[in-house]
Every structure is written in structure tokens, then in C-alpha cells.
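pasting for ref
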Amino acid sequence: MIDDLPKMPSFRLDGKRALVAGASSGIGVGAAVALAGAGAEVVLAARSMERLDPVVHALRAAGHATKALSLDVADAAATEAAVTAAGPFDVLVNSAGIARHGPALETTEPDFDSVLATNVRGAYFLTRSVAKGLIAADRGGSLINISSQMAHVGGPDRAVYSATKHAVEGFTKSMAIEWGSSGIRVNTICPTFIRTPLTDQTFANPDRARWVLEKIKLGRLGTVEDIMGAVVFLASDASALVTGTALMVDGGWTAG
């Protein structure tokens, strides 16, 4: 008879405070719902309060503890001030991001700068701001950046976007190394193409839609629901020894 069976780590987040950036649509909404469902108090952040408020009201109507925060991650100083005032947060899910897809030969400097300002600079300083609050409070935590399969491969019309996501993977690993001794874990989630309003333009092109489906080994597009379990896993004690890594939710795209 075995008396010391291992105990399953909890996926619950009761008593935790979570910040979800880019929470007004798509993956951000899914992350907020997932974290709230696991018991966390969730602060939803986005640039547009007009788009954010209906999400907050829907979560409250479902019995979840949520708050709204106006936040433009491209403004590093304002982001740090807002996070300092509202934090500390045990969990961060950064789903704020933009894309300006097109051939590399046609990339404009304004488009390049705009995408980097949000996807790299914004993500970097948001992650740092949440970490600073945790370190000041002498608390550990889980910081999650929504990256992309395009952080590990390339694709047509994706040169700028792919560059930003490769950068996110790089600073995620370095931050995980620096803050590991403080009990702060830093990881990414790398989705394949997820059906959201932002991807409608891609799927409206039959050739591009066919190319996408041929690459996804499971033969279907992703949904927001496909990301939710990954968010709870990385946010919870179930992933207590996971840091500095990328969780692929890509239907096998990057497998070969």
C-alpha cells in the first residue's frame, strides 16, 4: 500500500489578482473569462473603454469580480503609473497587440514603428511594470505574453509581425532568468491563426485560407476557447516549474 501518493497541483486561482491587457476582444476576452472562472479577481485593460465596458458588465453579470482599466501599453510611462496604482497583480496576461500585414518590400516606417511600439515596447514595459510591483511586494507571480506561432516560423506578409513576436520570445526568456529567484515565472502562449475579427481579412482570401489550413496539422482554425486552458495552466500552480518557455497552441503548425 502506498501512503504518500502525489497530490495534484491546483488549477484554481482563488485569492489571486490578474491583469488582462487587450481584454476588449478576441483572445483577451477569453483569457479574462478563463481566469475569472478559475476564481481570480480580474482587471480588464484596453485602450477603448467603450469596447471594454460590455465585457466587464457581462463578467459581472456572470458573478465574477472584475474591474476595468483604461490602458494604452504603447505609452510606457502611463502604463507603469496605472499598474503601480492598481496593482500588485499575481497574474498578467498581455494580449494587447496589433498587426500591419503586407509584403516586406512595401513596409512603411510608420507601420513598422507602430507595430513595434505595441507588440515589443509595450509588451516589454507592461511585463516589467507588473514584475516591479510583485518584487516590491515580495510576491511571486505568473506573467504571460500572448505571442504567436509566427515567433518560431516565418510567413508571407508577416515580416514585421513575426519580427515583433520573435522579440517577445527573447525578452520573455531573459526576464524569466532574471526574476526566477523572486518566484516570478514568465512564459508565452503561441497560438496559430485564431478565428477573431482581426483575422477575418486573412480568411477572406481563399488562397491564404487554404495555405493556413494546410499548415495546421489538425485541419482546423483555432478558436478563442482553444487558448483558455493554456492561460489557466500557466497562471496556476499546475505550472509551478514552467518558466522561460513557449506553450505552442498551433495545431501542429510548427511541428513540421
